[in-house]
Amino acid sequence: MKKTKIAVFASGTGSNFDTIVRERKAGHLNVEVCLLVCDKPEALVVEKASQYGIPTFAFEAKSYENKEGFEREIEKQLKKLEVEWVILAGYMRLIGPTLLQAYPNRMINIHPSLLPAFPGKDAIGQAFDAGVKVTGVTVHFVDEGMDTGQIIDQEALRILDSDDRDSLQKRVQEVEHRLFPATIQKLISERGNQNEKKSTH
After folding, report:
1. What predicted TM-score, i.e. pTM, was given to this entire model?
2. Is 119 helix (H, G, I), strand (E, B) or coil?
3. Is the per-residue pLDDT at 159 higher than 60?
4. Which domain holds residue 149?
5. 113/107 Cα distance (integer angstroms)
6. How many domains in the chain?
7. Catalytic amino acids?
């Protein structure tokens, strides 16, 4: 079965990037990770990509005149590698029109809260400080807003009385590492089946 070519965008330690690559190696994800895109050249995720032998496009936004400048450069890299889906895994920048138009409904993000609650940065800290009893993880399509795209899947997680920020973050990440690869696989195979049906008609 043909593997779907994906690029992963990340800005930090890359725990979800790591999970995607491992799940692919274990045969649970029918993808080829063609490229890591990172806006922080010194981020830990860049090191992980090099250990896995995955090409990286690392850039500094300030080296470009504007968002369109670096997004055109990213688009060029994605097209060259024939990337079909873009997966945001802790990428801390809003996506602009250049990439949104290049990948309509083929760009997804993971966010550590039950959206629409606690969008934006430090969602786990926001939930903890708000004193809510339940938080969770959301996988959604990317649009021009901050975590406002159509929701694909969610999983709730109860916040325990014994939780502090660190323990809550660890538990939320465990949900992410299970939900994200499963959702990616489901989406890609559903989309693949639709395309097959179209081509047989």
Report:
1. 0.93
2. coil
3. yes
4. 4-200
5. 19
6. 1
7. 111
